[in-house]
Design brief:
Structural class: mainly alpha
Number of strands: 0
Order of helices and strands: HH
Distance between the termini: 21 Å
Strand content: under 5%
Number of helices: 2
Shape: elongated
Helix content: over 70%
Radius of gyration: 15 Å
Largest sheet: none
């Protein structure tokens, strides 16, 4: 896989964002901070999807479309 380090960093960022969301819920922080972190997590998921789609398909893979 090309860009393996970049994918791993993005996954680490997503994991950190999810931990932050859990802490926001536990502390009952303002909803604005929760929404901002959800948007951040959605952006990371979108970036990761784009990166996976850019990778060439292996011969044994089945196209999801």
């Amino acid at each position: 896989m090309r860009n393996r380090n970049l994918v791993n960093r993005k996954l680490d960022n997503l994991e950190t964002t999810l931990i932050t969301l859990q802490q926001i819920v536990n502390r009952q922080s303002p909803i604005e901070s929760y929404r901002a972190n959800i948007i951040k997590a959605q952006g990371l998921v979108s970036d990761l999807r784009d990166m996976v789609e850019a990778e060439p398909m292996a011969p044994g893979e089945i196209n999801r479309i």
